[in-house]
Amino acid sequence: MNKVYKVVWNASIGAWVATSELAKSKTKTKSKVLNLSAAVLVGAVTFSSNALAGTVLGNGSSTPNKCNNSGSVIVGGGNTQSCANSDFAIAVGNDVQSTGRGSIAIGSGSRAESRQPNLDGKGAIAIGNDAIAYGDNSVAIGGQASTTEDFTVSFGHKKGDPKYYQGKEQGAWEDDRFLRVTNIAEGVKDNDAVNVSQLKSAVAEAKTHYVSINDNGTKGSNYENDGAKGRNSIAVGVNTTSNGIEAVAVGSNAKGVGTGAIAVGSASETVGSGDVSIGRNASTKGATGSASRYSNQSIAIGDQTKAIGDQSIAIGADVIARGNSSVAIGGDDVDKIARDTELSQKYTEITGGKLQAGKYPTTEANHGSTAVGVQAVGTGAFASAFGMTSKATGDASSAFGVMSNAAGKGASAFGAVAQATGDGASAIRSQILRLSSTTRSITPKLNLTPKLTTLRLSWKTKV
Question: Whole-structure pTM over 0.70, yes or no?
Answer without folding.
Answer: no
